[in-house]
Amino acid sequence: MTVAGPVLGLDIGGTKLTVGVVGPDGAVRSERVEPTPATASPLEILELLFAMSEAAIGEAGLWWSDLWATGISFGGPVHFPTGTTVTCHHLAGWEGFPLRDRVAERAGTPVVMDNDANAAALGEARFGAARGCEHVLYLTVSTGIGGGLVLGGRVHRGANSMAGEIGHTLVAFGGPECTCGRRGCLEAVASGPAIARAAREALASGQVSALNSLPAEDITARDVGEAAPSDALAARVMRQAGEFLGIAIAAAVNLVNPGIVVIGGGVSHAGPAFLDPVRETVTRLAVPESARDLRIVAGELGPRGGLLGAAALALEEPHPECAEG
After folding, report:
1. Same domain, 36 and 136
2. CATH number for the domain including 111?
3. In which element (H, E) is residue 128 found?
């Protein structure tokens, strides 16, 4: 069987575009990062991505023909079988766009595309915190909350390519309204904006905190996480968010029995103030047999999670030369 060669990874996010050439071992041989043009059409963004790709491939000393495959991590839901984007919550014009085929026409390589959470899950399983694990639950906790499942070493996408939407698990009956229109979703109570909102509400009630030194409207989840080790109010806010996340994870653990839970995204950087309540809640609520030996850890791939996830997707798919082997 032919050994996989370098792949091209494309990470399309609402705020930035990342393109890179990645080896089978996860080593990034070249990389380009640009802000995502907020008003650009999908075709205009594609032109920018290909210009970035040309530069990255050249920097790596390669030609398009040297690439094994191309992987795409897309910041929104996708229909995996057809390679089309369903929508993008941050950019206009992506409804039903045949992104995989458009890239394949220009790249001349096999192309595989998935949503960013599935890509990051596979990236962590192949190159990051879940290396060597066959059954992985991945969550990204940042502006929103997304999830991905790797079961038996392969991404589990579900009947409509929508598996992993853990951010819309109901964890707080009658809670704040979510972006999906329902109330009490995990995303509405444990995402970055939800953590910042909870801190502002606590401060508005007259509670004393080191966060009082910041303009209320400027407080972010990062501020709350950094204050939590030494500030009681911030610690309570982070604990509450961690407990809500733990409720959702416990339900998922009971259902799919992963060997490891990896938490990525900006909020995961809050450390023990956030992760300890998650672990404690999962231990309390999950069926003991399902949670036995379960590890809950922060992701390792950081800002390159999308790029390395896209590369992992490209490496996951059988290359045409190997289709019969």
Report:
1. no
2. 3.30.420.40
3. none
